[in-house]
Amino acid sequence: MAYHFDTVKLEKGMYGETGRTFTQVLEAQDPSEQYKGTALEGLDAFQRQLKRFDIKVKGAGSDVVEKFFSTADSAVLFPEYVARAVRQGMEEADLLPAITAAVTRFDGMDYRSITSVPDEEKELRRVEEGAAIPGTTVKVQENLVKLHKRGRMLVASYEAIRYQKLDLFSVTLRQIGAHINRMHLEDAIQVLEEGDGNGNPAPVMETAAEGVLSYDDLVEFWNEFDPYEMNTMLVSRDMMLQLLKLEEFQNPLTGLNFQGTGKLTTPMGATLLRTSALGPGKIIGLDRHYALEMVQGSDVLIEYDKLIDRQLERAAITSVSGFAKLFNQASKVLQLA
User: Which of 23, 158, 161, 30 is nearest to 84 (CA)?
Assistant: First the structure.
C-alpha cells in the first residue's frame, strides 16, 4: 500500500501559517484518518514524518541530532521536535491545570476579561409570585489583563550538539520547558495574591500565633470560603513543613493515602500543591472552579529559521500567557503573623 506521507513536501513556510501549528499544516496535507486499520494507525502527521526519514528521538537506539539534517526536508522537522520536547517539559510538573478554572486562547498581548456581580451576595432568596427575579450582571473588567512572554534562550553551536543523542538532548529541552512553566506559575501566583489590576487582590488572613501555623488557623481559613469551596491549596516550602508536623495532619488514613498514591491532602479535603514559586510563610487557598482564568496568547514558539539553518546560537524559545481573576472571594491568602 502506498502511503501519502512519503511524498509530502516539507518547507519552512509551514511554520508561518497564521492560526495553525506545523503539525496542523501537516495533518491537512496528510490526514491521520486515512491510516486507520494500518500499521501507522495511532501516529500523527509529524510522527509519520519521523518514520519516513527513520529518525528515532527516544530510547536506547535514538539517533544523533545530525540525523535531522541529513536532507533539506528532514531539517524542517527539527523545530517541531524541539517544540514538542519543550512542551513535554512544561507539562511534566505543571500545576496550572490544577488552579485554573478556564483557559482562553487569545491572539494579542492585551486581554479584557469579564466579571459578574450578583444582586444578592451569598444568598439565594425565594422569588415570590409576581416579584422581580434577582439578577447577576456580567460585565467586562475595567482594566486590561496584560500577557507576558516568557522564555529561555537556547545557546549552543551545531558542532557542540550534532553528535549528541536525541534522547539526551530532549532532557535539556524538557528542562527549558520546566523553567518556562515555572515563570507562568509565578505570574499566576502574583495575580492570585495581588489581583489583575482591577482592584481585586486576595483577602489576607494571618495566623493567631506569630510564626506558627495551627490547625485552628486552617479551620478558620477554610470557613471563610463560603459560598465557595477551598478545594486547592498552594503552599510554600516552609509552610508545607509546618502542615506535615500538625498532629491532625498525621491521621493514619492521610498517611496511607500519601504512601499509596503520593498525593497529599489536608484534613479539609483540599489538594495540596507545594511550590517554591510562592513566597515563604504563605498559603493560597482557592476554589479552582472559580478563581482564575488562564489567557494563552501562544503555544511554544521557536525561531524555526535559525534551527533549520543550524544557527542554534541564541535561538529563542518562548510562550505567551497571562492570568485574570474571576471571582475574588474564591481565593484567599493565609500568612504567618
Answer: 23
- pTM for the whole thing? 0.87
Looking at the domain assignment, is residue 69 inside a domain? no
At 190 the pLDDT is 96
Q: Which residue has the cell 486515512?
A: 34
* Domain count for the chain: 2
Write out residues in the chain with pLDDT < 70, as ranges. Answer: 1-2, 117-128, 130-131, 134, 136, 251-260, 262-265, 267
**Cα 155 from Cα 176, distance rounded (Å):** 11
How many residues are there in the chain?
Answer: 337
Whole-angstrom distance, CA of residue 168 vs CA of residue 170? 5
| Domain end position, chosen among 11, 31, 52 | 52
C-alpha–C-alpha distance, residues 320 and 3, integer Å: 37
> How many other CB atoms are there within 10 angstroms of residue 13's CB atom?
9
Q: Residue 156: what pLDDT? A: 87
Q: Pull the grid cell for residue 192.
A: 492570585
Answer whether residue 34 is part of any domain: yes
| Residue 27 belongs to domain spanning | 1-52
Q: Detail the DSSP E strand segments found in 141-291.
A: 145-146, 148-154, 204-206, 232-235, 271-274, 282-286
DSSP state letters, 163-207: TSBHHHHHHHHHHHHHHHHHHHHHHHHHHHHH-SSSS-PPPEEE-
> Which amino acid, 189?
I
Q: What is the CATH number of the domain that holds 221?
A: 3.30.2320.10
Other Cβ atoms less than 10 A from the Cβ of 264: the count is 19
Q: Is residue 218 part of a domain?
A: yes
* The last residue of a domain, from among 52, 67, 95: 52
d(CA 317, CA 304): 10
Is 236 within a domain? Answer: yes
Residues in CB range of 150: below 8 A, 6 or more apart: 180, 183, 184, 187, 318, 319, 320, 321
